[in-house]
Fold:
Amino acid sequence: MSKKTKESNLQDIENKDINIENTDTPATEDAEQVVEGAEDMPVEELDETAKLTAEVDDLKAQIEKQKDDYLRLMAEFDNYRRRTLREKADLIKTGGEGCMKAILPVIDDFERAMQAMSNSDDVEALKTGVELIYNKFRAYLEQNGVKEMETIGVEFDADKHEAIAQIPAPAPEQKSKIIDCTQKGYTLNDVVIRFPKVVVAQ
Structure:
């Protein structure tokens, strides 16, 4: 075999090796990319799952806290409602205690007056004693917001007065005004608690 032929064969073998190397390189790179992609995908999915799990746990904790706060608030409101009802019942039961205690001295005065009536013939003294008791009792009522309503000469008001009779007006200026009162009316803190019974001029 000539020297040229040997060199030609060696050149062909080298060319074949080069082609083989060039053919293997893309396949190796593709395989590496596939492996790298397979490793990255599960990690991303795990991170996303961990984030979602953390968010769900946080929401569950918030719901439990709100539920606990709601139950506490309902319990406090129920306790407040029961306490208020109990206090209201006690107030209704004993609310008039102070009022009754203040009236007792007036009762004592009436008893003394009746005892004096049986042992005395002095009418003027008895009259003075009764007037003192009356004034004392009226002062007590006024101190507690009870006031007598004015009626005679006042313009009739159906919201404040109860007309039991109507008579012709003695004078033109008295028309629609109250000219007589058969039963006094009273207010408690400016609210009518008993309407006066009146006669109105027409």
